[in-house]
Structure formats: C-alpha cells, structure tokens
Write the structure tokens for this entry.
Amino acid sequence: MREIKHLLPQVARYFKANLHTHSTISDGKLTREEVKEAYKSLGYQILCLTDHNTTANHSDMNEPDFLMLTGVEINVNAPDKCAVGGQTYHLNLIAKKPDNTWSPAKVFRKFPAAADYEDKMQCEEMDLQCNPASINAMIAKANEKGFLVMYNHPTWSCQTYADYAPLKGLWGMELRNTECCLLGHNENNFRVYKDLLTLGNRIFPLGTDDMHSPKALGQSWIMVGASDLRYGNVIEALEKGDFYMSCGPEITGLCIEGDVLKVTCSDAQRINLETHGRMAQVILAANEPLREAEFNLGTFFSRVNDDPDAFVYVTVTAPDGSYATTRPYYLKDLL
C-alpha cells in the first residue's frame, strides 16, 4: 500500500484570520474595539490591525478564543502619488512577537488616534523611496527585525512587472483584497502570484479584507492550521504556510499518494492544478458540484528534472465564482 502524505496540517482545528484591517487609528471607519467585535461575530479567531505606518500592540484585546496580532501597513508613494496612475508600494509587516513595535519610518501623515501609539514605536527612519531597491532594503530590515512581510494589492497600486519582479524577501502576497475589489479593481492577483513563484520566490497566497468600512467585512480570509491560539504557535503556522486562502470554499483535505494528488473540498464548480510550467489540469463539475478531485503528477515529476523550485498549487472554484487556493508545494513536499 502506498504511503499517504498529508499536505494540509493535521490539526484538530483551523482558525479563521484576517491580516489586513484598518481602524480609526488610521483611516478606518470603526474603532479597534468595533473592528474586533465585527470580526468575532463573523466567526474569526485571528485579527491583525494594520493601521497605516503605526505599528501597534493590541494584546490587551486578546481573549481565550480570539488573538490580536501586532502589525502595520507601510506606504511608500511615488512623487506623483496624486496623479492618475500614480504608483505606490504598500506592504504589511506582521510581528513575530507581540511587543515588537518597530517601524522603518515615522508616520507619514498624522491620524489623531495614532498619537497614543507613536511614542511606543521604535522608528528606524529609513529613507524610503518608491523603487524596488529601496523597498528591498526595507523588506530585508523588516525580516531582520522579526517581521513577516506581505505585498499588498499590486493592481490598486498600479504596479507593473518591473515593479514587483525584483522584490525579494517577501513572505506572502495578497491574492485577493476585498476593499480593492469593491472599489472596482480586479484585485484577484493570480498572474502576479505565479510570476513571483516562477521567479523563485517562496511566497504564500493571502486573502484579506483591507477593511476600512463595514462593507468590506469578512469576504476574504485565510484558514490557519495551528495547535492553539498562542501567539508563537500562530506565527509558526503562518511562517510555514500552514494555511490556505479563501473567499468562499473550504479545502478539507489535500494529500499525495504515490504520484496522485487528492483534494477534498466544499461544493465546487471546478478544481484546478497549476504548476510552474505549462502543465495544468482541471476537473469540471458535470451534473452536480464536485467535492473531490485527483491529479496524476507523474508527467509533472518526469518533466521537472528534480528542480527544487518546481511547484504545484490547487485552486477550488465554487459555483458562485468564489475560490480557495492552497500554498505552493515543492518537490520536497511531494516526494
């Protein structure tokens, strides 16, 4: 009998998380307490408030079944930021320890409620410029200072391949950003995600709300497989990629048996396998929704020639068009 290797973490519980949210500490419409209660009412257990350029520790709001992560969104605007098509880089920094309130720069504009947190920040005062070299320097420093760095809404940010292809040291990127989608942008960034993977970046796909007002609540998230809600255990799961992103479907199982990758999920219209090359496979629903699929990876294995950067990932699309996506899995994960 062939060995079954589970790719999703085998834990008793998955925790629903949003890692990009704003409050009245910056330009959000709700107070931090209102944001927490809104997400808690929707069944979330993990929330990271990422107010603009204000790194804040919200551990005082923790409960046994609800965890607040320390984070910040850093904005680096081009000089023509007010012009049509003005470019910007937005990156979230998620602290690996709750009391880490480092920031690469001082608050670039004043939000009155941020004053309560600014004197607790350790500001590096880096000279941040809207170009890849400067952003890479910031990413490297943030990694050194103990943060996971995520790349935000490249479509809304007017980013081109030349802007994101040189980026290094990212932990994840927003595959879907609810707020930007509601503003009319196609912030479903599969092309950018696959570009970065193909360039050798081992990054993870994220679903976030980027919630500024209640209309964006609870529409994109990640499901984190962790043993419990202790801060260190959740960060460890995030670092390893023990999660999947979703804006609707559930992925209930992912395993490999021999050369066969098996997926189980909630009702789906299609289940896709993508790889770092041209090879792809899709299973389409016929008379009733899919709840499982199998993909034979034998051809894929024979073509990648033991390339350690060769990857596969699975996307499940529900009948209503919403989707869920796994992290990329590499040869060492599969063999």
In short: The mean pLDDT is 94. The chain has nine helices and 20 strands. The CA atoms of residues 38 and 217 lie 8 Å apart. The radius of gyration is 20 Å.
